[in-house]
């Protein structure tokens, strides 16, 4: 029954796909492959703010393929503010050299393929990307999404006595990385954040599988 529903959903989305070139997004994902993803934006409102940079890198098994990465600057349709520049250190002159949003989305989708997406606060990144992709393609990102903070919560929760499970756990990125004994890079840089999310995913995947 579940397989039939998945097949029906795939056919429905392919029917509504505005560009057949991207039909590969609905193919089965390569086994043991993922894409770690991060976006830097002009703010935290997915209804109004804009993407200014994107980084993605492939994960195969337990390896981050940093040599197979995608880094894009994206040209927003309005100017940067001083707050924007202080957060991600991208000036208006930097993003002015970037790609138009549609060009950036096309390159990103070709890079991702049908691989599941991995990230920290991934729901926000996906919402920002879908805002650009929906007008282009008539569909949203169909790939499976894996939230690193949810994996970490599951890992920490399992370590607690049964009576204490389900409570609050510190899910801040710096806390997560330190607890997992992983290197903490400068935040608010798309590539650094994608690499950290990828490292956390690989380690947590191993820890959760071992229990």
Describe the structure.
The protein has 211 residues and is α/β, with parallel strands linked by helices. The protein has one domain: Nucleotidyltransferase, domain 5, CATH 3.30.420.10. 45% of the residues lie in helices and 17% in strands. It is built from eight helices and five strands. It has a five-stranded mixed sheet with strand order 3-2-1-4-5, with helices on both faces. Helix 6 packs parallel to helix 8. The two termini are 30 Å apart. The model has no long low-confidence stretch (mean pLDDT 88).
How are the SSEs placed, and which strands pair?
Blueprint: H1 2-16, E1 33-41, E2 51-60, E3 63-73, H2 82-88, H3 92-95, H4 101-112, E4 117-119, H5 122-137, E5 145-147, H6 148-159, H7 173-179, H8 190-210
Parallel strand pairs: 1-4, 4-5
Antiparallel strand pairs: 1-2, 2-3
Helix pairs in contact: 6-8
The secondary-structure class comes to: alpha/beta
CATH homologous superfamily label: Ribonuclease H-like superfamily/Ribonuclease H
Separation of termini?
30 Å
| Average of pLDDT | 88
In what range is the share of β-strand residues? 15-25%
CATH class category label: Alpha Beta
Quaternary status: single chain
Low-confidence stretches: none
Q: Into how many domains do the coordinates divide?
A: 1
Radius of gyration, whole Å: 18 Å
Main sheet record: 5 strands, mixed
**CATH fold node name:** Nucleotidyltransferase, domain 5
Categorize the overall geometry.
globular
Total E-strand runs: 5
CATH architecture type:
2-Layer Sandwich
Strand order of the largest sheet: 3-2-1-4-5
Order of helices and strands: HEEEHHHEHEHHH
Count of alpha/pi helices:
8
Helix content: 40-55%
């Amino acid at each position: 029954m579940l397989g039939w529903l998945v097949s029906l959903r795939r056919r429905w989305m392919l029917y509504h796909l505005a560009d057949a070139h991207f039909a590969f997004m609905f193919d089965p994902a390569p086994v043991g492959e993922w894409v770690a993803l991060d976006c830097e934006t002009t703010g935290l409102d997915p209804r109004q703010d804009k993407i200014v940079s994107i980084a993605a890198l492939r994960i195969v098994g337990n390896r981050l393929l940093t040599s197979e990465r995608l880094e894009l600057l994206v040209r927003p349709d309005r100017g940067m503010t001083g707050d924007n520049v202080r957060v991600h250190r991208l000036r208006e002159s930097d993003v002015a050299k970037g790609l138009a949003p549609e060009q950036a989305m096309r390159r990103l989708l070709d890079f991702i393929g049908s691989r599941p997406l991995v990230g920290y606060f991934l729901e926000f990144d996906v919402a920002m990307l879908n805002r650009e992709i929906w007008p282009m393609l008539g569909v949203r990102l169909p790939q499976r999404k894996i939230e690193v903070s949810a994996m970490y919560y599951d890992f920490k929760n399992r370590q607690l006595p049964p009576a204490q499970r389900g409570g609050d756990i510190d899910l801040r990125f710096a806390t997560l990385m330190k607890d997992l004994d992983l290197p903490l890079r400068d935040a608010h840089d798309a590539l650094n954040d994608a690499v950290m999310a990828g490292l956390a995913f690989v380690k947590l995947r191993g820890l959760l599988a071992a229990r």
